[in-house]
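STRUCTURE:
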């Protein structure tokens, strides 16, 4: 809902005439809702920016939040939303920072009992509602973006590719291996093989709780992709329960080397590269 030119003029005059009172009371209401999670100085700065932006938008004539004259106001509201989302505030706490203006306007207009004042308050309230909805939508978009970024970071952290010996890299998998994660594993493994020039890769599934047909297919695709890059893969972490499941499902790993533990896989690779390994023997007492 847009304000008429007359309504916009009365809103500008009201906020201009009672600027200090408006900013002070608005800040107090927001501070009470946030329970000290932001400093009084920071809250006052944000309220002052909103107060100024509203006046500037209203001076353009008919006040419409979607109009060009409200560009700065939308920018201030969006910045407020982004800041609150990054600081961990809720959408409700963020919206209240805007809706508190309704209480301030009511206090400023309640001394005027005319029909014009009542109509103005209804129009001003509708405008504040629009501002609150815009703030909420901006908050949600920012929060969704943050969640997506965090999910991507967690996905990368959960699929590390480490160099454990010259010419040998390992991918220790933990948790369920779905399609999205399998794609990340494949991309990171292939990139590491290119960067290190390693001819061997160990895919350790000790931390994978269960292996079904889908998980096995993901592993096999990763092995084939590595072979196309000139690297051989060894699968380690084949526990008895997983081995029984693989047999029951009829999954064939073909000529892919499999080992019970990461240590066994590493010893196998070192033998292939000609490095002598020996199990530590207990010392004999003289």
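SEQUENCE:
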């Amino acid at each position: 809902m847009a304000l008429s030119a007359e309504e916009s003029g009365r809103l500008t005059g009201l906020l201009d005439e009672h600027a200090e009172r408006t900013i002070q009371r608005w800040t107090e209401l927001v501070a009470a809702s946030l329970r000290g999670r932001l400093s009084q100085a920071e809250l006052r700065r944000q309220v002052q920016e909103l107060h100024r932006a509203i006046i500037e938008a209203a001076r353009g004539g008919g006040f419409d939040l979607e109009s060009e004259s409200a560009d700065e106001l939308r920018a201030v509201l969006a910045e407020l939303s982004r800041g609150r989302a990054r600081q961990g505030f809720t959408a409700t706490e963020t919206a209240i920072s805007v809706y508190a203006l309704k209480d301030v306007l009511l206090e400023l207009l309640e001394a005027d009992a005319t029909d014009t004042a009542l109509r103005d308050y209804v129009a001003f309230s509708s405008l504040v509602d629009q501002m609150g909805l815009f703030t909420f939508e901006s908050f949600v978009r920012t929060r969704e973006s943050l969640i997506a970024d965090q999910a991507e970071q967690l996905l990368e952290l959960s699929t590390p590719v480490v160099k454990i010996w010259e010419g040998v890299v390992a991918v220790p998998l933990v948790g369920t291996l779905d399609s999205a994660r399998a794609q990340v594993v494949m991309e990171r493994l292939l990139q590491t093989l290119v960067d290190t020039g390693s001819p061997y890769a160990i895919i350790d599934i000790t931390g994978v709780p269960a292996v079904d047909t889908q998980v096995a297919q993901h592993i096999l695709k990763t092995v084939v992709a590595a072979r196309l890059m000139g690297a051989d893969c060894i699968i380690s972490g084949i526990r008895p329960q997983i081995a029984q499941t693989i047999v029951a499902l009829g999954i064939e790993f073909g000529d892919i080397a499999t080992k019970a533990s990461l240590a066994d896989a590493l010893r196998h690779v070192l033998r292939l590269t000609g490095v002598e390994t020996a199990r530590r023997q207990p010392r004999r007492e003289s």
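REMARK: The chain has ten helices and five strands.
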